[in-house]
């Protein structure tokens, strides 16, 4: 190998090293820019009125057990109130975070809560342990914090969640239909 060949090879190695350093710096800059974007989005979402409402609903309903208490003292109506309390969670996930899989997961968690709450007394006791508001807040926080594990879990289960929402809706329909039929039967038995 001649001196010129060695110099050419050294120059090529140096150029390759400089390109690799530039690429690494570019990657680092992109990573920093992404982190800044995530932090700005997180600050924007956490300062929104929707997040404030969702955070406080989760705190009141699961920490202070408002959901099971309402369900115990107002059977049936408590489940309707629980469904109304789900609206801010759905709004935040669908219109502010803009994630359909997250919205499906939130709807599914609330549907399970409503299904369990349809069973008098037992459902209210189970409501203490289910804590759908806290689960949904954890999922929302995972998306806001850009937690890859939460996002991956929700995205992976999206189809299953959509299927389960349909099944739970059918179960709720049949339970309500059965309850109405029982009330009619008792009414006819007593007054009929």
From TrEMBL:
- Transmembrane segments in this chain: where? 69-94, 158-181
* Keywords in alphabetical order: Membrane, Transmembrane, Transmembrane helix
State what protein this is by name.
DUF4112 domain-containing protein
Highest rank taxon of the organism? Bacteria
């Amino acid at each position: 190998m001649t001196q010129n060949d060695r110099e050419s090879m050294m120059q090529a190695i140096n150029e390759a090293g400089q390109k690799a350093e530039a690429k690494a710096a570019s990657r680092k800059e992109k990573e920093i820019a992404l982190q800044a974007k995530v932090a700005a989005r997180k600050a924007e979402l956490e300062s929104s009125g929707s997040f404030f409402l969702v955070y406080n609903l989760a705190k009141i309903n699961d920490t202070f057990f408002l959901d099971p208490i309402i369900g115990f003292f107002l059977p049936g109506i408590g489940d309707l109130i629980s469904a109304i309390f789900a609206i801010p969670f759905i709004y935040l996930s669908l219109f502010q975070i803009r994630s359909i899989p997250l919205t499906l997961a939130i709807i599914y968690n609330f549907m399970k809560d409503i299904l369990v709450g349809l069973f008098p007394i037992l459902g209210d006791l189970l409501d203490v342990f289910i804590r759908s508001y806290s689960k949904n807040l954890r999922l929302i926080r995972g998306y806001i914090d850009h937690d890859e594990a939460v996002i991956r879990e929700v995205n992976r289960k999206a189809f299953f969640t959509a299927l389960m929402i349909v099944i739970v809706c059918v179960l709720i329909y049949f339970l309500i239909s059965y309850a109405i039929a029982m009330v009619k039967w008792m009414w006819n038995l007593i007054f009929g």
